[in-house]
Design brief:
With 517 residues, this protein is mostly beta strands. 5% of the residues lie in helices and 53% in strands. The chain has two helices and 43 strands. The two termini are 43 Å apart.
């Protein structure tokens, strides 16, 4: 209440001081509710009637004490403003106080990370860590993913009517560790630096990075003051991209005994902020950073059986986690394998069909027929050639019995085959030497070599994703590439994209699937 009262007084003093200036200049002060905004015009309801005003490049628009563009004006805002005739000179919105004239009735918008969407409800975690469960009508477009920073606009009835993705702000850039040597002019120098790359620490030279205005500093789960108070400490530094520049936004001061290890999640208590791993409970706090697919997420986005990289602070008898990184990355399309039984004019039947479900192959009891259309991409690895659909399918005149009893991998959409790769039937399963790899695309050279990083490989022995392999590339000269659910080309995959790869023992890629945005 004290904070609100002070803000109100400040605003009143400001208006009193400007009133005399406005009066002298022939201006008027009013309060009202924004009804609509169109181009350079805003319509405000004042004393029961709606008046239209013009917004010029010289109009001062303030939200919470900050200058903002006219795009911040939205229906439902309760505003105070000054005008001269039909032109607005100054308009002010303050969403933090309840003083009339400086806040809209009800919530206008909030910003935070997208936790999830289910059955017409949108879950947002704001910057204070509070969760908001909001009504999301079916006609509202949601062009954002879990972990994205979004601005959610809410109407008078409490329903979401617009969701804007705030590009880049929640993107995890890098993780460093080292000694905080100095902080000068909002720029920090880190000595004895190591960079977390491909799930390994790589030594680097001394680095200097700008510090975010929103930097948070934590030690033993407690938030400290400004970053300058931790000079001389060894710490972990999490950076993000802010307007094209890498900045330090979270600092985790080392304390106690730090341990790093990889294991599966067995249980999650999101209320208590606790994650159970096979041999220990891990405590999460507001200082914890949870990463998945290069984005920051909340504990609500974690799932059982996910494999995570955990950085634990084992001071005393508790295990707090300043960092938890999800290693699981599922393919964005349906992937099956099996053995071709019979081929028809537009379809083929298969036996021993399995589908990737979670991290394992699950048997499909009744797979039905697989349809091949004119756009189906087919690779014959037996004869090292690409086939047209007609060269694969049987018709009245051409029979292709040489393809029966062959093993295959396929990407399917429903029962339609987007692309498939055939193998010889030299093993019962056709998967004896196939590796399943998740990675981030680094680069592709002209010789068909795809450099990859942040690599994890699925182990059938341990039934989980493990860090590795150490070899940071695959050969993609004759691979099946899937982008946006359709067959594509390797040069269409964007640098920095996450890819799901099936590769043979020589690291030749059979199938490359871009995860998509």
């Amino acid at each position: 209440m004290k904070k609100t009262f002070v803000l109100f007084l400040t605003s009143v003093i400001f208006l009193v001081s400007t009133c005399s200036v406005c009066a002298a200049a022939g201006m008027n002060n009013y309060e009202g509710i924004v009804k609509s905004v169109s181009n350079s015009n805003v319509y405000i309801q004042v004393a029961g009637r709606t008046i239209g005003y013009t917004i010029s490049p010289h109009t001062i628009i303030m939200v919470n004490g900050k200058n903002v563009p006219a795009s911040e004006l939205m229906p439902g805002q309760h505003v105070s403003y000054t005008n001269k005739g039909s032109k607005l000179s100054y308009i002010n919105i303050n969403s933090h106080t309840e003083a009339p004239g400086f806040s809209q009735p009800g919530l206008f918008y909030l910003t935070g990370s997208l936790v999830g969407e289910d059955n017409g409800r949108l879950l947002i975690c704001d910057e204070s860590g509070s969760l908001h469960n909001l009504a999301l009508p079916s006609y509202v477009s949601l062009n954002a993913q879990v972990g994205d920073l979004v601005k959610v606009y809410i109407d008078d009835s409490g329903c979401v009517y617009l969701v804007n993705k705030m590009a880049g702000n929640m993107q995890y850039a890098c993780l460093y560790r080292g000694k905080l040597s100095s902080v000068v002019s909002n720029s920090a120098q880190i000595n004895d630096t190591a960079r977390f790359d491909n799930y390994r620490w790589r030594d680097e030279d001394v680095i200097r990075l700008p510090v975010s205005d929103d930097v948070k500093v934590y030690k033993s789960n407690a938030e400290l003051g400004n970053i300058g108070g931790s000079i001389g400490s060894y710490a972990y530094f999490v950076t993000r991209m802010e307007y094209g520049e890498e900045r330090i936004y979270k600092v985790i001061i080392q304390s106690g005994y730090m341990k790093e290890y990889v294991d599966k999640i067995e249980g999650i208590d999101s209320v208590a902020g606790r994650v159970t791993l096979p041999e220990t409970d891990v405590q999460l706090s507001p200082g914890s950073t949870i990463l998945k697919d290069g984005k920051m997420i909340t504990v609500d986005n974690l799932k059982e059986d996910q494999t995570v990289f955990a950085l634990l602070d084992r001071m005393g008898n508790k295990n707090s986690a300043p960092l938890l990184m999800v290693l699981d990355r599922q393919p964005s399309v349906r992937i099956v394998r099996g053995k071709i039984d019979s081929i028809n004019s537009t379809t083929f039947d298969a036996d021993h069909v399995y589908e990737i479900d979670g991290n394992i192959w699950s048997r499909v009891s009744n797979p039905g027929e697989f349809y091949v259309n004119d756009d189906t991409y087919i690779i014959d690895y037996i004869n090292d050639e690409k086939l047209t659909p007609d060269e694969f399918l049987n018709d009245r005149y051409d029979r292709h019995s040489e393809y029966t009893d062959k093993n295959f991998y396929a990407v399917v959409d429903g029962d339609e085959v987007v692309g498939m790769a055939m193998y010889d039937s030299h093993t019962d399963s056709g998967t004896a030497n196939v590796r399943f790899i998740n990675a981030k695309l680094d680069s592709i050279d002209g010789n068909g070599r795809m450099s990859i990083k942040d690599i994890t490989e699925y182990s059938n022995l341990t039934d989980k994703w493990t860090i590795g392999p150490g070899l940071g590339y695959v050969w993609i000269g004759n691979s099946l590439v899937i982008k946006d659910g359709r067959a594509s080309e390797t040069n269409k995959i964007k640098q920095g994209s996450y890819v799901y790869i099936l590769a043979d023992e020589n690291m030749n890629a059979i199938l490359v699937v871009e995860r998509g945005e």
